[in-house]
């Protein structure tokens, strides 16, 4: 089964080669990598051209337009959507060699159990610094993310995204229901997860870590320890409301409804952490 890996780059010269090497080392080899550069001004394009010359599975897309990460991934997903399966790759992480194999096996098992529905599988990550030194063995624990709870209800998912884009593997049905992305979609991963849930699909979390999630100060979105969020209740509430409001058309009607589901989610999360 053909898999399309989609990567958006922007001034990623420092870590890009290491990430590309980890993709080339995958035990699952039936993939093509499409890389769209979002207007880099460093040597990112030179690195990409070199790798594309060495491996014909790599295709460089360079239209010269700067549109940001979310829209860049959307464009890739729109223009290279003929595969059966899709994965996203960031420019600065490192994949375990069996990442794709683990995700593909889980996704195909899910498809056998529930055929013809949108399905997204996603994994945990190991948080590391810019030199790949460990910060936390589990991103989910580090940021107090509970996919086994969040993935079960679209309103929970609208309050707090559980899916990290660089760990996703999803089928064409999930791709189709997510496009086009709404103008207020914050990031591609959260949007695809939300639309999958909205269309009665499945989100399947894998507790195993498959990615070294590199933190270097210039991440588009990075790993934030839960303790940092706890210092500002107002900030957390506002961010959750923004996320929930972006789900308009699926779950959002008004602020009172958001507060109700925020309280329900808080109660269920508290119960979940006591029994997990």
Uncertain regions spanning at least 5 consecutive residues: none
Strand content: 15-25%
Structural class: alpha/beta
Radius of gyration (CA) equals 18 Å
Question: How are the elements arranged and paired?
Answer:
Layout: E1 3-9, H1 16-24, E2 31-37, H2 44-54, E3 58-61, H3 69-79, E4 85-89, E5 94-95, H4 99-113, E6 119-128, E7 134-136, H5 139-142, H6 147-150, H7 154-159, E8 169-171, H8 172-178, H9 188-198, E9 202-214, H10 226-230, H11 233-245, H12 255-275
Parallel strand pairs: 1-2, 1-4, 2-3, 6-9
Antiparallel strand pairs: 4-8, 5-9, 6-7, 6-8
Name the features:
alpha/beta, nine-stranded mixed sheet, 12 helices, 276 residues
């Amino acid at each position: 089964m053909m898999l399309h890996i989609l990567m958006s780059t922007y001034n990623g010269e420092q870590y890009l080669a290491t990430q590309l090497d980890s993709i080339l080392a995958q035990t699952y080899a039936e993939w093509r990598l499409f890389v769209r550069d979002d207007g880099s001004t460093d040597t990112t394009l030179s690195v990409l051209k070199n790798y594309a010359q060495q491996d014909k599975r790599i295709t460089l897309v360079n239209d010269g337009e700067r549109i940001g990460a979310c829209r860049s991934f959307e464009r890739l997903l729109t223009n290279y959507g003929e595969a059966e399966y899709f994965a996203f790759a960031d420019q600065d992480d490192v994949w375990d060699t069996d990442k794709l194999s683990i995700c593909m096996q889980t996704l195909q098992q899910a498809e056998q159990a529930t055929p013809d529905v949108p399905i997204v599988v996603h994994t945990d990550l190991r948080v590391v610094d810019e030199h790949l030194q460990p910060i936390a063995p589990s991103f989910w624990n580090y940021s107090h993310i509970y996919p086994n709870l969040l993935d079960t209800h679209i309103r929970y998912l609208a309050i707090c995204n559980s899916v990290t884009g660089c760990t996703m593997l999803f089928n064409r049905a999930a791709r189709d229901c997510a496009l086009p992305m709404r103008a207020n979609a914050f990031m591609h991963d959260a949007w695809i997860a939300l639309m999958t849930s909205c269309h009665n699909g499945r989100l399947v979390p894998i507790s195993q870590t498959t990615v070294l999630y590199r933190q270097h100060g210039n991440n588009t979105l990075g790993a934030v320890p839960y303790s940092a969020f706890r210092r500002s209740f107002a900030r957390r509430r506002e961010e959750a409301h923004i996320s929930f409001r972006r789900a308009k058309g699926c779950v959002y009607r008004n602020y009172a409804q958001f507060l109700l589901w925020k309280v329900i989610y808080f109660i269920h999360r508290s119960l979940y952490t006591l029994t997990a």
